[in-house]
Design a protein that fits this description.
Order of helices and strands: HEEEHEHEEEEEHEHHEHEHEHEHH
Largest sheet: 8 strands, parallel, barrel
Distance between the termini: 30 Å
Strand order of the largest sheet: 3-4-5-10-11-12-13-14
Number of domains: 1
Amino acid sequence: MRVGFFYSIQMMKHLLFEPFNMAGLSLKNRVAMAPLTRSRAANGQNKANELIALYYRQRASAGLIITEGSQISRTAVGYHHTPGIYSNAQIEGWKLTTDAVHQEGGKIFIQLWHVGRVSHPDYLNGELPLAPSAINPDIVVRTPTGKKKSVTPKEMTTREIQQVISDFAQAADNAVKAGFDGVEIHASNGYLLHQFFAPVSNTRTDQYGGSIENRSRILFEVLDAMKERIPLNRVGIRLNPSAHNVQGMQITEETIPTFDYLVNRLNNVPLAYLHLSEPFTDVSLIPHSEPHIAQHFRPIYHGTLIINKGFNAQSAMHILDDGLADMVAFGVPFISNPDLVYRMQNELPLASANPLTYYSDGEVGYTDYPALKL
């Protein structure tokens, strides 16, 4: 038998492409489609539409689809034409997507999102973005009228924090009504919950600031509120422990101990999964950083672990073989390869995505990438 042919047979039968039981939810493989902001809800209601439904239908061969971030309230938005999950119209809009994915035998979670200080008054009727503390992230924000400098946000009152917690819980309830198989809490990449975790963005002196336990409090209060609306084994959480120069986040000596605390404590919560990102950039020379996220956190976390960032078929198979994750999430490759699972399993070439159409309107660069096999 030819060596190349033997390798192909081994790849086709690899663990990556076999069914997986994720906290009682049966998935057809261990490939996850990572959340990808695509800005196609251009309808004045931030409502998922037929085009969005087609996009996810095309990619339903993934074991699990995690949608783009979907804002949980009007105060949570920070990007143009992103679909929300706080209104009845948005619930109805997302039903088109969940129906389409389920018709293809797929499973789909919605990512619940509050961007916090990464927003801009242009999205908020002139109001300031909300954040744990009034600290400007000093980044460039994409607004409906172009790129602008970020502003100093409004420090949230305790009442406003409680409202956001309630909004997360209501969004989970709305997701159930829309037909989603579960939800992912976006606590990553410099957005609101991540802002609470980090001393660079949280200098509060009340019960939500100061110690690691206090800065982590909001996530567990969200989970407590959410479990009244949705079983926690249908809830995932996304974290990015080595985010550096990402939306104003910086690694400090408290960063990894904070995430160690979070992940250890999440072992006591019967989640669907924990979704971790490897560093977006090389952090090996950054003091106090952890450049090998899966290696560091796999021994700590005992539930289903999804790992993300820059994987291909071979590296994904290796990380599963090494026992460092249970599933692997792919982002950009899914943009231009709706049949990514088929292509990887059969060692077929991948199409390249066009970055100029990542956030544009319409089907170009969105639903017009062809599949090799429908």
